[in-house]
Specification:
Chain A: Pfam families: 2CSK_N (PF08521), HATPase_c (PF02518), HisKA (PF00512). The complex is a heterodimer of chains A (458) and B (377). Chain A is an alpha+beta fold. Chain A is built from nine helices and 14 strands. A five-stranded antiparallel β-sheet of chain A has the order 4-3-7-6-5, covered by helices on one side. The relative contact order of chain A is 0.07. Chain B folds into two domains: 204 residues, Periplasmic binding protein-like II (D-Maltodextrin-Binding Protein, domain 2, 3-Layer(aba) Sandwich); 151 residues, Periplasmic binding protein-like II (D-Maltodextrin-Binding Protein, domain 2, 3-Layer(aba) Sandwich). In chain B, strand 2, helix 2 and strand 3 form a beta-alpha-beta unit. Classes of the chains: A alpha+beta (458), B alpha/beta (377).
Chain lengths: 458, 377
């Protein structure tokens, strides 16, 4: 379960990283605070020591005089045994006494100033007290400078920081725990959804009824939409199967009735007639079965063969040639109109030939009714590339033109067709990314079936 | 003023028995060694007869170390350490001048010692693991036994003060103590005692009252006591007095039982030591039980190591005197001792109190003799 793939770990990482950053910031802050606190606490020592020394400064023998109290120096050294330095300076940075030449601290205006200074490879905390003698006649200014090394401060800062460290660590631990629980709690509906989906009967397509938070409710609705589309598809399939079995049952029932009838007779001629009739019926039943098979194949979205560039004019000519004899027998004038140059689209030639054959067949069957001069024209358009089959028959009313594309819908005129032809053509057109549409013939009489291909990009 | 200070520092360094012969340098091993042997140079203010047993024992344990010991006065030690002159800087510095040693360590000239011995050293006897007190030497009162017969024993400062005030005439000129102006040790004790007890100034006045003789060294005091010039000496270095009294049974050494200052010889490893390893060895040895035992058994110096309980050891003295022992605290207070103005102020006060005692209206003190000249009694 890597971080990239798990919502849980993703959330945890994105929440924990800023949390840890925050904790680090807090620790840094705590460190500075501890240092500051330690400095302030220890600066009081410098303050007290410098005061104790300043109080002992007096004017004697025409100069500043100091009776250094040892306790003032002792108080500068804590358990950490700091190194201690002191100096008394008169006006003009003039060294009076002391065990080190300690630097002056600039600025301030305040009587007491503190700073970290470097002195002979050591870091000292220096406190400078400005004072003046408060005699009647002598108000000499002087500076008491005291300093010590930082060990005690660092020890105190460290122990303070250790306290903060423990607190922050505890806080971080608690926050992490809460975070883990919160994420688990927040992701619980997802688990419920998963369980609900897993627990479903694979055959039901009923919508999910599950109380979910808003974000997941959207997902549930999307799922439910998909389910309802699947329900419609399944309804279509069931109707198709029903229609198909009905269509197959009719010729089979006819066959068995015809055979029964013939068996009752003894006349071989009657048998022969019956056999001939049965052959016709079984042939049409076989044709129906072939058509059902190819429709099923076309509707199978997982079996799409490779499309190859092909010339539409050649397809049109070949299909016309195949249909020529059947049309001549029916007394129909079949013609083909193609542009001079090849019209190249990507597709599967045998499927397109089959589609044209179906369209020509339809035109032959239905488009020739009630005409003395039935005529069917196969046409190839170059731009946009399209295949047209036009007849001069009665046509189809506009409101039925979409319905006839459905399997087993056969318009108003009953005949020997299977009712699958246009559905198959539609399926082939879709698998080529093309659209089948039925329109009125250019002459105003008859039907024009057009397969419009997408504009070739190559 | 400067000259006086200088003289005082010079005298401070010679807190030694004056009779011992002086060889400036001891060297071990006596035969030349390989030139790549680790060298160790010690600067110390301890006469060779005193330090020799310690060095010999150390040499026996670490024969490969090329060991040199230079005997200097405490002032020479201080000056040699701070000078940049061509002389080889010492690896280990040993001196009884506590404030000076402390000042060097405080300035960061010492190197911390991280050994087991250093960690276990008693807290009161070291500073920052850089400066170690290796001896335990109380400051004592020494008197001739005849004094006790005539006036009764003196066991503490109170008795001493009363005796000095009561027998002012009898004791005139027969009392000796350090001159704080000339002796660094005497000055250090004065500073510490002035801090310890306000009655110290009464004692100074009483010393002034008997026109006490002021000298520069314990050696002079012991010498005078042995010759009978003095009846009582105040603030003598106990280690020397103990050793001396063994040969002079007429002397009684008393560690005052109200309070007794304790001096320590401080030793540190120089930060500038080129090769610190032999120096660390030596310090570890001084802090070890074995080294301390040699100090305790072969020198008159008292030992600090808590495992040693023989006579003169810190343990034995503490058992006997308890809270009365006041080791000079190893702390920044020592820096105040070295303050120039402080010194002037204290000496001025001391002189004032001493003179006040000497000139107070008592019938026999109308013609005080000059205090620095004494005829032998």
């Amino acid at each position: 379960m890597s971080v990239r793939n798990s919502l849980y770990w993703r959330l945890l990482a994105w929440l924990l990283l800023p949390l840890l950053g925050l904790a680090a910031l807090m620790l840094w802050q705590a460190y500075l605070g501890a240092r500051d606190t330690a400095d302030r606490a220890f600066d009081r020592l410098l303050e007290a020591a410098s005061l104790a020394i300043a109080e002992q400064v007096k004017w004697q023998d025409n100069r500043l005089w100091l009776d250094l109290p040892p306790a003032a120096l002792e108080m500068l050294a804590t358990d950490a045994e700091e190194r201690v330095f002191y100096a008394l300076y008169a006006t003009g940075d003039e060294f009076v006494t002391g065990n080190a030449r300690l630097p002056a601290l600039e600025g301030g205006g305040t009587a007491l100033r503190f700073a970290d200074v470097g002195w002979q490879d050591q870091t000292l905390r220096l406190g400078v007290r400005e004072a003046r003698l408060e005699d009647w006649d002598q108000q000499e200014r002087f500076e008491v400078r005291v300093a010590h090394t930082r060990e005690g401060r660092e020890a105190l800062a460290f122990s303070l920081f250790q306290g903060s460290l423990a607190r922050v660590a505890l806080l971080a631990l608690l926050a992490t725990g809460v975070l883990v629980l919160a994420i688990r709690f927040a992701l619980a509906p997802l688990t419920r959804l998963r369980r609900a989906i897993r627990a479903r009967d694979p055959r039901t397509l009923a919508p999910l009824e599950l109380a979910l938070p808003r974000e997941l409710a959207e997902l549930r609705e999307t799922l439910n939409e998909l389910l309802s589309r699947m329900r419609r598809v399944r309804a279509n399939q069931e109707r198709f199967i029903g229609d198909a079995s009905h269509q197959l049952r009719t010729p089979l029932a006819g066959l068995s009735a015809r055979a029964e009838l013939a068996l009752r007779q003894n006349d071989p001629d009657a048998w022969r007639d019956a056999l001939q009739a049965m052959r016709t019926t079984s042939a049409s039943a076989a044709h129906l079965a072939v058509q059902l098979l190819s429709l099923t194949r076309l509707n199978n979205p997982e079996a799409t063969p490779e499309l190859e560039p092909l010339d539409l004019t050649r397809v049109a000519r070949r299909a016309t040639r195949h249909a020529l004899s059947a049309c001549q027998r029916a007394g129909i004038d079949l013609g083909v109109e193609t542009p001079e140059s090849a019209v190249i689209v990507s597709g599967i030639d045998w499927q397109l030939e089959e589609a044209l054959a179906n369209l020509i067949d339809n035109a032959r069957r239905y488009g020739s009714q009630g005409r003395d001069d039935p005529c069917v024209t196969v046409r190839v358009n170059a731009s946009p590339p399209a295949l047209e089959v036009e007849d001069n028959g009665p046509g189809i009313p506009a409101h039925l033109r979409l319905m006839v594309l459905r399997p087993f819908f056969r318009g108003q005129a009953p005949g020997e067709g299977s009712g699958l032809g246009l559905a198959i053509v539609d399926g082939i057109a879709r698998s080529h990314g093309a659209r089948l549409s039925l329109e009125e013939a250019y002459s105003g009489h008859g039907l024009r079936a057009i397969i419009r291909f997408p504009e070739a990009h190559a | 003023m400067k000259a006086r200070l200088l003289a005082a520092l010079l005298w401070l360094a010679s807190v030694l028995l004056s009779t011992t012969s002086k060889a400036e340098t001891l060297h071990y091993p006596l035969l030349p060694v390989r030139s790549d042997a680790p060298r160790l140079l010690i600067h110390g203010a301890l006469d060779p007869p005193l330090i020799a047993p310690v060095l010999e024992d150390f040499h026996r344990r670490h024969p490969h170390i090329d060991l040199s010991y230079r005997n200097l006065t405490t002032l020479e030690i201080h000056r040699a350490f701070l000078s940049d002159g061509g002389e080889t800087p010492p690896d280990v510095v040993m001196s009884s001048a506590m404030p000076w040693q402390y000042q060097l360590a405080n300035h960061g000239y010492a190197q911390p010692l991280e050994s087991q011995e250093a960690r276990e050293w008693p807290a009161w006897a070291h500073w920052r693991h850089e400066l170690f007190g290796i001896t335990f030497e109380p400051v004592v009162i020494v008197y001739r036994k005849e004094l006790a017969k005539r006036f009764g024993a003196v066991n503490d400062h109170g008795e001493l003060l009363r005796l000095l005030e009561r027998e002012r005439d009898e004791l005139r000129g027969r009392v000796v103590t350090y001159d704080p102006a000339r002796s660094g040790a005497g000055y250090t004790y004065a500073v510490e005692e002035a801090r310890l007890s306000p009655r110290y100034w009464a004692l100074v006045a009483a010393l002034g009252g008997v026109e006490a003789d002021l000298v520069g060294t314990t050696g002079e005091m012991l010498d005078g006591l042995a010759k009978g010039r003095y009846l009582i000496g105040y603030n003598l270095l106990g280690s020397y007095a103990q050793a001396f009294s063994r040969e002079h049974p007429e002397l009684e050494v008393v560690v005052p039982d109200d309070y007794a200052l304790v001096m320590q010889r401080l030793v540190f490893l120089s930060r500038s030591a080129g090769n610190p390893a032999p120096g660390q060895r030596f310090l570890d040895y001084l802090l070890s039980e074995a080294g301390q035992r040699v100090i305790g058994e072969h020198t008159p110096l008292g030992t600090v190591h808590p495992a040693l309980e023989g006579p003169g050891s810190a343990q034995a003295l503490r058992e006997r005197l308890g809270e009365a022992l006041r080791p000079i605290r190893l702390g920044p207070g020592l820096l105040a001792t070295l303050d120039r103005l402080k010194r002037e102020a204290l000496l001025a006060r001391w002189e004032l109190e001493f003179r006040r005692g000497a000139t107070s209206p008592r019938p026999h003190s109308l013609h005080p003799r000059p205090r620095s000249h004494h005829d032998a009694p």
